[in-house]
Amino acid sequence: MEKIGIVTEEGADLPQDIIEKYQIAVAPIKMHWPEIENLPGDNTFQKMRQAEKLGVKSFGKTSQPSAKDFMDVFEKQLAHFEEVIGIILTSKLSGSYNSALQARNFLKPEDQKRIFLIDSLSFSAGESPLILRAIDLIEQGKSAEEIVKDLEKFVPLIQVIVIIEDPKWLEASGRMSPFLANWTRRAAKIGLRPLIRIKNGVLVSGGIVTGAKDIPAALFKKFETETKKLKKEGKKIRTVITHGDDEAGAVRLKEMIEKASENNQVAFINIIDNVVATLIGPGSMLLSWCEI
Questions:
Q1: What is the span of the domain harbouring residue 14?
Q2: Spatial separation of the C-alpha atoms in residues 130 and 125, rounded to whole Å
Q3: Are 6 and 146 in the same domain?
Q4: What is the longest distance spanned by two Cα atoms in the chain?
Q5: What mean pLDDT do residues 113-129 have?
């Protein structure tokens, strides 16, 4: 048996090659939106755009992995690894972490002791850096207990900024307050780029970027401002970019980040999965960064 395996869920938006390379088990998050299932489009975002054009008034609903879903991935990993670390979607916005806790409690006592759970207090580009950190520590030969202690300290060090085209999706889901949604709309109407942060597991205002021609430029401008100290100290910075069906914009953001400093590393670009797609809507983009 190998020493330590990883479990997560689809909200982490990990690319398939990373999932396969590191044998990560991913619990499914279900989406229910029958009104768009038969609409044209290669992904959920494209179907959402079609739904808007057709005047579809409904919103997608998602449900966290069940305890059974987590039991399945735990048992899969326990069959191949001595211990398992679960890195799960923020408990402040989803019941996924609670489902994982329940699943662990259903296992045999000796197996429960082999599973360690971390509340990422984030999602998408904010959750995946924690998994990348765990991979680094596993490869360094750290024990599960050492890794968990490190990750718990690392959680608040991951910075995440988000720009969305339309806050209606988040507002409809109840994950953004009407106050923050209205603030975002007002700022956008006068040509400003409102930022949202994921902080302590919830969405909060992240200020405003001015003088940026589009979303990638705005994210880069904020990134440059907030990483000045790390850059001056010569620190290596790992970033992750996830997007709402804007591959070209994500690639431009990657190029800007990597051109700004040889110490900037873009770990990956990936399209946002269905679970987050229904919340933030088409055209949105997330950028996370942390020191490595």
A1: 2-29+64-155
A2: 10
A3: yes
A4: 59
A5: 97
Q: How do residues 159-188 score in pLDDT, each as one tens digit?
A: 999 998 888 888 887 878 888 888 888 888
In a domain, 107, yes or no: yes
Looking at the chain, the whole-number percentage of residues with pLDDT higher than 70 is 100
Look at residue 192 and give its three-state secondary structure.
coil
H-type alpha helices, the chain: 16-21, 44-53, 67-78, 96-106, 109-112, 128-139, 144-154, 168-173, 178-189, 215-226, 228-232, 247-260, 274-280
232 with 106, same domain: the answer is no
Share of the chain above pLDDT 90, in %: 78
Are the beta carbons of 257 and 239 closer than 8 angstroms?
Answer: yes
**Would you say 180 and 203 are in contact if contact means Cβ atoms under 8 Å apart?**
yes
Distance CA 152, CA 70 (A): 21
Q: How far is CA 235 from CA 56, 229, 267, in A?
A: 48, 9, 16
Residue 7 forms part of a structural domain = yes
Q: Tokens in use for 267?
A: 């770990």
Q: What is the CB neighbour count within 10 angstroms for residue 225? A: 10
102 shares its domain with 215: no
**CATH number of the domain within which 108 lies:** 3.40.50.10440
Residue 253's CATH number: 3.30.1180.10
Strands 193-199, 159-163: parallel, antiparallel or unpaired by DSSP? antiparallel
Q: Are residues 131 and 166 in the same domain?
A: no
Task: Answer whether residue 174 is part of any domain.
Answer: yes
User: Rounded to whole angstroms, what are the CA distances from 9 to 12, 123, 243?
Assistant: 6, 10, 18
Chain Cα centroid distance, residue 50: 25
Torsion on CA atoms 248, 217, 222, 224, rounded to nearest 10: 90
